[in-house]
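Usage

Read records sequentially. Each one opens with the input sequence:
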Amino acid sequence: MARAARIAAGAAAILLLAAAAAIAAFWAPDRPVEALQARWAPAPSAFLEIQGLRVHVRDEGPRDDPVPIVLLHGTSASLHTWDGWTEALRGERRVIRFDLPGFGLTGPTADDVYVIERYLRVLVALLARLEVWRCVLAGNSFGGQVAWEAALALPEVVERLILVDAAGYPMQPASVPIGFRLARIPVLNRVFEFMLPRAIVAASVRNVYGDPGRVDEALIDRYYELALRAGNRAALPQRLAQAPAGRGAERIAKLRLPVLILWGGRDRLIPLENARRFHADIAGSELVVFDDLGHVPQEEDPARTIGAVKRFLARH
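and closes with the structure output:
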């Protein structure tokens, strides 16, 4: 009995030491937005008070553009995912992008509300603040869902629509990034509000690329540090629960405007079948597939994907 008790006590001590070591190794408390601004919000970044949020915005290009291009990123991403497209467009077009509520440097809402209608209200208020009355709206992943919902709600504002591996239909993913899987597990997702192994972020980013070899350390740094922005980790499970893909999908067929659908053929999160559904449901839409790219083709290969965008803009 005494020997068994000593063995049990020893095992418990080892487990406690292992847990302490893990906490020490992966302890990652929230970082205030002020600590992240110098690296991730240099000029031309600005912060605008919109709907009770301090929204991180970049507004570039000629101000006399009558129909600016507005870019919406996906879940756990940021306005930086559009760096390549912006570089290619801002010489001739006004390009506006911002960190959606719950992500990037904008951070969480005060009331923990992340339904689609909240995102639409923020978008409408931001466009009004910037005096944008007509626009081309582009969105990737969850940002794509916000984009097509906005096109339906604001037909007088959204002139053309670009959907990039967009959410909308019920999802049957071949693979889900580990960060998203952990965010859906009760209790465990609370643990990750204080601990965040960089390896989890790295694996999640590589998971959504068609060629994981394109993911470098600088890219992982960006996703990792912006995930640590105060409140973002707590917001992620709420966003996933409150605005699931598939809700309202029957309304997609009501879209009546020029629509370009771009998709990565190696997207394992929102497979290519969803692109074909968008194309079939939206009358007159155009579909361009990049066979070797993944879920964020605009980030993985901006030079190639922007070519399709420029051709679409020139035709319409």
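Summary fields computed downstream for this record:
- Confidence is low (pLDDT under 50) at residues 8-24.
- Residues 3 and 9 are 10 Å apart (CA to CA).
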